[in-house]
Design brief:
- The protein has 5 helices and 6 strands.
- By secondary structure, the chain is an alpha/beta fold.
- It has a 4-stranded mixed β-sheet, with helices on one face.
- Helix 2 packs across helix 4 and helix 3 crosses helix 4.
- It is globular and about 40 Å long.
């Protein structure tokens, strides 16, 4: 466990969006939920804060508002901190390079991550991603182009992709 992290919830067109941010400004967890109870369990135990307080998220909060207002690159430079095995950490970094409006398939994502045959591992990276939006797992689709799963619901995923495509 680490020190104190800050939590804030924002009203968005896709429902409430909550983020938990470490003292140094790195996103530990985020998603379309109104409660920390959905986010704290997905933070790696070595990163989980000892205490979470509500407050101003600074640049992270500004980026959340700007993204939902239409600045699709606002979240790109925000630091994120997640822990897992080497492949998942690398795959999360790769996922941050998938631009808004240009979703990829799980197979394409696996190839970009350096393991073209590891489609299930790529899907696992999406499923285990704690920092939704900042690590844009919503930009990965099934090979047939359908949405696939999303921790925050396929309706949110569909609306995010529409938001990013200008639809």
């Amino acid at each position: 466990m680490t020190g104190i992290a800050t939590l804030a919830t924002f009203a968005t067109p896709f429902g409430p969006f909550t983020a938990i941010v470490d003292a140094d400004g790195a996103v530990l967890a985020s998603g379309w939920t109104g409660t920390a109870d959905d986010l704290l369990p997905v933070i790696h135990p070595s990163l989980r804060p000892a205490e979470v307080v509500e407050g101003d998220l600074g640049d992270v909060g500004k980026a959340i508002v700007a993204y939902h207002d239409g600045d699709l690159t606002a979240v790109d430079g925000i630091p994120v901190r997640q822990r897992s095995g080497a492949f998942l950490e690398h795959a999360w970094d790769v996922l941050r390079t998938v631009p808004a409006g240009a979703p990829v398939t799980y197979a394409e994502y696996a190839a970009r991550s350096g393991r073209p045959a590891a489609v299930r591992a790529a899907a696992s990276a999406c499923a285990r991603n704690a920092a939704a939006l900042f690590v844009p797992c919503h930009r990965v689709l099934r090979t047939d182009g359908t949405l696939g799963g999303f921790r925050w619901g396929t309706e949110v995923k569909r609306r995010l992709l529409e938001h990013e495509s200008g639809a």
